[in-house]
Design goal:
- The protein is mostly beta strands.
- It has 2 domains: 112 residues, no CATH class; 184 residues, Jelly Rolls (Sandwich), CATH 2.60.120.
- The mean pLDDT is 86.
- The longest helix is centred in the N-terminal third of the chain and has 13 residues.
- Strands 8, 10, 11, 13, 18, 19, 20 and 22 form an 8-stranded antiparallel β-sheet that branches. It has a 7-stranded antiparallel β-sheet with strand order 9-12-21-14-15-16-17, with no helix packed on it.
- It contains 1 helix and 22 strands.
- 4% of the residues lie in helices and 39% in strands.
- A hairpin with a 4-residue loop joins strand 6 and strand 7.
Length: 335
């Protein structure tokens, strides 16, 4: 994940942690202390920033959200350690960090400048990237823009077609989503994105509006890939070149609300559609050795354009769901 913003703190304070000790009773009723390691744990550091501009404070806020609060580790840039002759005198080389809490802010100078205190603790593991990501679109950005950024770590070039834009009208995470007008809006993935084997997961939060029809959420049509679309009744439907009869769910989506949808394929070739984490239909697709995705917001056939919003869309090179699950409660980790 991205390093902490390159902002030099006004002050650093340290909590040098404690050794991993445990106290147990012995057979005589006394107590014995055990040392479980030779390195201190819960090492912490507080960074104090004074007189930050709104833009600088926003860098810290956005980074905190991007790390899902304290869930994802990250590295600190060299500017954090400015003034130390050797960083190794403070922490191990390459040490990673997590947030210990929400950054604290206080406004000064009539609210135009901000003091920020950031509390950090050392992370046990390096930052958690996701090696199975093929595409990750968060649809974050300013209202009305059309810059769609792939955050999978693969740096894919995403091409908007028609009038597909970022909208702040609806959002699951991050304050914005992708808006598709149902007439000619879509996103093109570069030359199709292909799995390395049978297994995959394609998922997103969707917010349909106005009415239902045959409207694609994601598709690989034209490349022999799978398609997930709605039907005029609001059901989800899976299609592929090798499947004579599409999978159509009995459960339906609702207009005007965010819902999690997914389609998965196992290593054995079993494809399943999921609505809000519930298994809603499956079929054997073991005849297909790989799968390709080429469109977001389009079903690959004339007129099959999504009408509504899409947020937090992820395509993975692995089957992530094999039993009913709770839909994600936070943004997906990046690559």
């Amino acid at each position: 994940m991205p390093d902490f913003p390159a902002l030099r703190p006004y002050r650093r304070t340290y909590n040098f942690g404690e050794f991993p000790l445990a106290t147990e009773s012995d057979v005589a009723g006394g107590s014995v202390r055990f040392l479980h390691g030779d390195s201190a744990i819960r090492f912490g550091m507080s960074l104090t920033y004074e007189w930050l501009t709104q833009a600088e404070a926003t860098l810290i806020r956005d980074h905190y959200r991007g790390q899902q609060g304290s869930h994802i580790g990250f590295a600190l840039p060299d500017v954090i350690w400015a003034g130390h002759s050797s960083v190794a005198n403070i922490v191990s080389e390459g040490q990673h960090w997590r947030y210990a809490g929400v950054p604290e802010e206080s406004h000064i100078s009539g609210g135009t400048l901000i003091n920020v205190t950031v509390s950090l603790i050392t992370a046990v593991c390096p930052p958690a990237g996701d090696p199975d990501l093929l595409v990750l679109l968060r649809f974050n950005g300013a209202d009305g823009t059309n810059d769609f950024i792939d955050e999978s770590g693969n740096d894919l070039s995403i091409t908007p077609v028609g009038g597909a834009t970022i909208s702040t009208a609806q959002s699951k995470f991050g304050g914005s989503s992708g808006l598709f007008d149902g007439s000619n809006d879509r996103l093109d993935l570069p030359a199709g994105v292909t799995t390395t084997g049978r297994a995959y997961t394609a998922e997103a939060w969707v917010y349909p509006v106005v009415d239902f029809d045959f409207r694609g959420i994601f598709s690989g049509r034209g490349f022999g890939g799978p398609t997930l679309r709605t039907t005029p009744s609001g059901a989800l439907q899976y299609l592929n070149v090798s499947l004579v009869t599409p999978i159509t769910t009995s459960a339906t989506l609702s207009l005007g609300s965010m819902q999690h949808v997914a389609m998965t394929n196992t290593d054995a070739g079993m494809t399943t559609i999921w609505i809000n984490g519930i298994d809603s239909g499956s079929a054997d697709q073991s005849a297909l050795p790989t799968h390709t995705f080429s469109f977001v917001g389009y079903g690959g056939s004339p007129g099959e354009y999504w009408r509504g919003y899409i947020d937090e869309m992820r395509i993975s090179n692995v089957c992530r769901y094999t039993a009913n699950f709770m839909p994600p409660a936070a943004p997906f980790p990046g690559g």
